[in-house]
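Sanity check record (used in CI):
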Amino acid sequence: MAREIILGIDPGSRKTGYGVVLMEGRDPQYLGSGCIMMNTEESLAERLLLIFESVTSLVEQFHPTMMAIEEVFVSKNVQSTIKLAEARSAAMVAGAKQGLKVYEYTPMQIKQAVVGYGAAAKEQVQFMVTKILHLNGRPQADAADALACAICHAYTYKVSSALALNGLSQLGSSVRGRYRSWN
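Expected output for Crossover junction endodeoxyribonuclease RuvC:
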């Protein structure tokens, strides 16, 4: 796997987490993380614009080579699910407009890749992200989820790339089939 900078996004209409990792060699390295905080007094359209502009700014700041984003999970509250999907869309369009290939992962896939258990608690994800990236302290939950998404992609992409390089395209396509790519 060549030198890749991965921007991970944990979307939300109130708070969107982001995490940036460098994948060069064997282990991912921390480059940055945080949360895009929305003013809930503003209209949804204004919050979506903030997500779009903030992701655009992150791309300009970190120069990622690809973006990974958490898929929408369906909750009992339909309005919350729709708002989450809209926030995700704003982030995805910002990444795509900047020329990034956007990869999607389910929360279960992300937790499985980082913790080893698809139903892991947020605290377990925070703990493992801290250990994997050798951080001095735990990142906020949304930032940790975004970093976990980036780590998940780094591991998945690394495996599928290695399989393709070794001529195992049949096996590689089944690994790549676990995520969807939008370009």
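The radius of gyration is 16 Å. If this sentence no longer matches the regenerated tokens, the check is flagged for review.
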